[in-house]
Protein 1
Amino acid sequence: MKLRDRFSAAWRAFLGNPSREIMEAQQQLVSMKRELANVRMDLRGARETLSDLRARLEELESGQDDYAPDDRFQDLLEDLAAPLSQLRMQHSLIEAGKDISSRNIMVLVKQLAEVVEKAGLEPISRSGEEILFDTRIAEPLAADTAFAEGEVVVTKFNGYRYRGRIIRKALVAKRH
């Protein structure tokens, strides 16, 4: 720093006027305080979100929910009632010797599948879909067939999982 700059800085300090460096430092300090306040607000929001997520996780792990299990089961049965009633009616027509349409039956089966999938039964893969073989979710259709992990195979019969647990593995075959 030159002598003139030093003298000027000393004179400003004597008069109570801050130097340019001090003013810049003060501006930087104000800017950093603003940034710190924003970070604190973001952190507070993140903590609230984390707290909410932890509470929700505890609810799910304990099996409690805003929706009682009996209510869920009743809702499931109510959703199943209409297509089941129609299937029973189709069955009575068959027993009476009447012809029924396979298309009508498949529509009802699709409705049933949609109801149970809505309730949480999740298909692992769809029939005809190519997937990578994984022993956790699939098994060979034929007992005398073996596949390597990661080998491309074709799903012949859907697999299902419920709440992350495998209920039925997909049955797969070689890709043609």
Protein 2
Amino acid sequence: MELNKSRIAKRYASSFIDVVKQTEYKPLLTQLESVCELLKSHPELVKFAQNPLIDLESRIKVVTEVFTPLKLNEIVTNFIDVLLHNSRLDILDLITFFYARMVRRKLKESLAVVYSVTKLDAAMQKRISDQLAKIFNTSITLDCKQDPALIGGLRIQISNKIIDFSIQGELQRINGALKEEG
């Protein structure tokens, strides 16, 4: 079932990116992410939007009213309308994930997931992004996440590469070395 949802989400993301101009890739991604956040904080809205016992026009009207404060671009509004008509609003987060990946590919960017104990300020994020861009010779987009288990330092994941500068990682390396020595 999940594989099927992924396949469907990829098709929607691909169709969406086909109708979007390159200059709109990132602003529309931001809007899609805002919609996803709103849906995560109100899961009952997705259930309502998918309820076949309520007529479609009523569902569209309510969902449109809820999204009005977000001031969505017409393309995003129309896309959500298509999802509502096809009872696919429940996979918008997956569609957004695939769309973001397609945007990065088209813009020749890489995503680096940076794990740290505390929230990184903008200056630190810029330094990390600049250093990674030099190392990997590509534009880098950061996704910063907090992980108290690291104790200190950073763990960075880019594609299938992991750069571990965390205290937790160092302790694991020391532990492994001690076990090898017997």
Protein 3
Amino acid sequence: MQLQSITTATIPGYRVYEYLLVLSPHEELWNRIIKVKTEFSEKYKNDYAKWGKPHITLANFLQYELMEERLVNRLNMIAMGFHPIKVELRDYGSFPSHTIYINVVSKLPIQSLVKTIRTEAQRLMKLNDDNKPHFILEPHLTIARKLEPWQYEKGWLEYSHKHFTGRFIADGMLLLKRPLNEHRYQIVRRLEFQNLAVTTKQGELFISVVFVLLSVFPSLRQKKQYTMSEKLQQDHYKVKPKDADETQQYHAGRGAQFNTKNRFLKNEVTKEHIEGIDEWEETNLKTQYIEVHPKTIVNKVESPD
């Protein structure tokens, strides 16, 4: 990350840190990627491949340590609005001349997360006008960066033909930080995404409540069973006009919104065999425009007023 005008922005007594917001793979996949990075480092003499830990960067920024608590609170609120993300990795890619990485196939949910972070937390990540946060909208998992030309050419010649597959569930983000000009990051906070297990328990609780209500008030269950059995015994399901509350959904420019049944009606739409597996498709005719060419104008008005 480019460090600019740090001395002019420094507040006496407060330190500026470099922060990193990332998604981290599970241990087994983490170890596999570490092995790939180590092999690349040893073969092509690149220290950045050896130092960097496996992660997908979401955002990178500089900020005062005193802003950390407010930033963590904001990021925690953002994380609670997202479900765990399924991340799929496949093969290798590169940024020409300087970086080789593992491709992230499932980009859209990660990009959505990054855009939300940018919208809701960008102000808290901005140190000054010269040091603004950097949001990664092209998710990738770096193997080696800051490559010399010969390292990139030989490395990419090999890794462009290699294969790699992996997947993991990102159930939270990691906020990391390090002092300027140091290599080692430390974990500030793990920010958990919305827990699907909690949602499942809430659903189970709701179902339990419904069963209790049905046992306490059996009339509810009897009424429901009677209604369903009554419908199943019908030979035909007549298309009938919408109720008063549904007629409010008016389709402009289409005239009458339903055909009222009357004794002169020769044809009507019915639903046959309601137990069939085919979906019932009600007709939804589009407005038809019929071009006519009248010979005279009806009721031609020639009155001066």
